[in-house]
Structures are given as C-alpha cells and as structure tokens.
Amino acid sequence: MTVVLKNKKLFYAAIPKVACTSIKRMLFEVENGFAFNPFTANGEAWHVHRFYPSLLRTEFPEHQIADYRRLLMVRDPIKRFLSAYSNRVVFHEDISPKAIQKLGRFSRLTPSPDLGEFIDRFEKYLAIPIIKSHCRPMVDFAGADPAYYSAVYGIHQMDAFLEDVSTVVGDTVEAGRFQTGGPKLSPGELTAKQIAKLEKFYTADYEAFSRYF
C-alpha cells in the first residue's frame, strides 16, 4: 500500500496494520485539499485503499520515486499480528461462518477461530487473501533494506513522522486514528510456543527492522 505525491516528491510505503489507514487519509487530504470520507457509488464501497492500492516492494515505481523523499513506518511484528487478528478476524469478521462459506476452498477451516487456533493453523488461514494482505511479513511490502528509505519510523514515533511529512509538504499535518476496532491484545497473553512460532514466521522483519520497534 503506497502513496505517491508527485507535486511534493513524497513517497510513503504503507504496511497494513501499521497506521496505514490513518496515514493514507492524511495524505489524501494533503493531495486533494479535503478530507476523505468512505462512500458508496452504484452499490460499490470506496475506501481510501482503493485510491492508494497495495504495492509489494517489487512493484514500486522506481523510475518515478528515485529523487523522492521515501518514508516508511514499521511495527513490532507480533503486535502487528495481534492487531490484525483483533481487527480483521474479531471485529470485521473476515472469517466468520458466513464469510468462510463464500470462500469456497477454505470452507473446511474453523470459522471465527479463537486466537490459539488462529496461531496453530496460521499457515492455513494465511491462504485467505484478506488475511494474507494484513498478516504477511512487512518485508514483502517494504523490502529488507532500511537504507532504501529517507527515514524509517517506529509506530510509536508518529509525532516525528508527522513532523517529517509537514516539512516536506510545507504545512502542518495531523493524522486521526482509524481501523482500531477489536479487543486490545498484548504479546503477554501468548505462550512461549506461540511467540516462538510467530517470531520464526517474521524472522526477516526482525532482522531488517528490529532497531525501530
């Protein structure tokens, strides 16, 4: 998920569940001069991600952004995973009984799994597109080289990130909070075995970005 502001020479490489909805909506307002509000046209829902769609690292417009200020925000992988489970599985019910039925080949998976089962069968659930897009490693979206970016921020450094953007665009920007629905979960609720499994899955994220968590 990326934003390219041509007139500001600013590139933001967004990662799902790392404040990307909030930042995209902020940058939409920078680009257009008015706040974004989700809307429906001809029965079809339009959200900010449809205007700033997903891009993996291999899909970046390198020729266009070579001289842009390139910004990235990252997050502890396990906290990001828990946020994805809470928001997409619990709150949005992306794998509820009704949703599972519509997914065809995934119908044998247990719908609305509790956290333990979701982790135990993570590889199976990860094959579901909406789950994959929110839970796949950060390096898939950002690459594994922090030096590629002009600046990398941890999610706890939002104020510094906003100051950076404000400097680039020449105006003070603010970001709201969106996609926060769902229970608040912490790594302390996981067993050592569960943590070990997730750490292994997100090994590349830890190797690339652990200094920013």
Radius of gyration: 18 Å
- Widest beta sheet: strand line-up: 1-2-5-6
Shape verdict: globular
Helical content (DSSP H or I, runs of 4+): 40-55%
Query: How many domains make up the 3D coordinates?
Result: 1
Overall mean pLDDT score?
Answer: 94
Beta strand %: 5-15%
Q: What oligomeric state is this? A: single chain
> What are the secondary-structure elements, in order, as H or E?
EEHEEHHEHHHHHHEHHH
The main pleated sheet reads as:
4 strands, mixed
Low-confidence stretches: none
Q: Please count the helical segments.
A: 12
The number of distinct β-strands equals 6
Alpha-carbon distance between the termini? 20 Å
Structural class category: alpha/beta
Describe the overall structure.
- This protein is of the alpha/beta class.
- The chain contains 12 helices and 6 strands.
- It has one domain.
- A 4-stranded mixed β-sheet has the order 1-2-5-6. The chain has a two-stranded antiparallel ribbon with strand order 3-4.
- The model has no long low-confidence stretch (mean pLDDT 94).
- The chain is globular.
- The protein has helices at residues 20-32, 48-51, 62-65, 77-91, 97-102, 115-120, 122-125, 129-135, 138-142, 158-169, 192-201, 203-209, and strands spanning 2-5, 10-13, 39-41, 44-46, 69-74, 151-154.
